[in-house]
Amino acid sequence: MVATRYKTAFQLYPYIKVDAQDHAAVRHPVVIVGGGPIGLALALDLGQKGTPALVLDDHDGAGLGSKAICFAKRTLDIANRLGASQAMVDKGVVWNVGKVFHHDHKIFDFNLQPEAGHRNPAFINLQQPYFEKYLVYAINTAQAAGAPIEIRGRNCVTALENHDDYSTLTVETPDGPYQLEADYLIACDGARSPLRDMMGLSFDGRIFEDNFLIADVHMKADFPTERWFWFEPPFKDSGQSALLHKQPDDIWRIDFQLGWDIDRDAELNPARIRARVDAMLSSQAGYIPEYELEWTSIYTFQCRRMQKFRHGNVIFAGDSAHQVSPFGARGANSGVQDAENLAWKLDLVLKGLADDSLLDTYSTEREHGADENILNSSRATDFMTPKSDISKIFRNAVLELANRHAFARPLVNSGRLSVPCNYAGFNLFGEDALEGAPAGTAPGMPCPDAPHGDGFILDHLGGGFTLMAIGCDASDVTSHGIDAKVMQVESPSPDLKARYLGEAPAGLYLIRPDQHIVARWSRFDKTAVARATQTAIGKA
Hints:
This protein is an alpha+beta fold. The chain has twelve helices and 31 strands.
């Protein structure tokens, strides 16, 4: 039987016995283990490109509990390309503003998206089960249109045998075990990855000596939809820090930093949790509104990653490959970028348009992304949890300075929030030959959004290679079987000009399927575009 490890919030893909369970092992091009945000996003991206993807999940839907709640603009832009973002934004709580407090006074506030001209906000707060649900709905729509995506619920991988160029999986179901084969096996099975354990691979890093209590509280309150963070909060038994976030359905996420030497069972006692929540709410609202505890958990900070994300035909993504502390919202957001980076490369390899070695660049680029996230997450944790008296003195001195002087505010680290990954300097990027253009759209950067026509520029990029011609002429270019289609921008909006041209009168951008910029020029040169496309698929 398939064990039930957790309760589900939504049953999204109930178990159905398939014919393959009664026959010899069937070979699949791509098998994805894990039906969380990363596995689902990868399957949807592959399926929309016409590459078959099979998802195996040991449950039949999204797990109960908020888990990840902060989804960044970059993630929403990716979800928009996949056809899933509108439902997420409609359901989510949109926020751009955060406030940082020390004791009972505000140090400063910040706006993560002060400029206009973007489809998506800086962040939405949305419980992870909803994020997964809307991805499955988008998968259902894609399936109805012919996309070769299959999800098998209550299919638990119990054994793995790797061969030179494929893997054999043993899968347990309510009707017993069966076997299948995968040309490429993608492990999206979480921080405790069973596949990683089956392969005997390490997961190295740092565990921070601190504990944090999460309480999801159902209540009606008049607090604004902002991120509130306290260092040394004024409310009783609140620990060294606290965080307050609003979620949909009148759910509020509250985090308390408890310290290292605690009795976990005692701290999870509902009466003790309510005493902490009561103190916070009465401190901020002047009274204790009626509320219910929806979900509680205690976690420790861990910043770890695998040494390599690719092991032959087995590739790791999301929390199975890397894990960071939740402050900064870098876990799920980084994992969705893993999926987007891998999807187009895997698609080209399976279609014979790129060599298998292109998949090595998934590892190099996303290992860089993981290192960047771990560095920022570790710095945030060290700032939030000083390990010595002198460290705490310096930390509090920074907080006092920030209260009076703007120059010190960037030094305050309450969790550097997730930003898009920049791959500048890596092998798949070409020349930067657009003089006067902004640094934010240099090769390696993800495309920023901007108004265009009746919509936004990202809506027009699609999932293939694109030549964006702004104020100049260009034609489609085919190189090594890759078609770079021209998107003509004859009358760029002021925001588009500012973000893509700067001081340049015109510009040409080559953009790869994950909407990262490969190269840019002042005019169209077919040979240069062909050369850059060749570079982008690893055939330079």
